[in-house]
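Render Nuclear transport factor 2 family protein in 3D.
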Amino acid sequence: MDTAEIAELGKRWAVAEAAGDTDTLGGLVADEFRLVGPLGFVLDREQWLDRYRSGALATLRLDWRDVEVRVHGDTAIAIGVHDQEATHQGNRVDGTFRATHVLVRDGDGWRIAGMHLSPMGAPPAFAR
């Protein structure tokens, strides 16, 4: 049951990100939420939401796929592929990222406590 709830939460999160729906996003994440972005920057909950509130970030499409969920008591780890078309301050920030979502169970169900995005690319030349 937990994995199905977490998968559904992930779908709601992706739809809300694509819509810039900060009310829904705010309800899906924990108060102490942190995002580690694909370039290593860290945003707290309000900074993350403010990107949409200010119009600085516009997500045109977001696909959260190939997700594997592992539940460990009141904590869960969801690892998947985050594929987006978006702009930040008018600049394209499209990309495909390996993403890790850390979720915690509270009285109202599951909340996303953290996300970490890592760009996916081709293997280095020495690995081919």
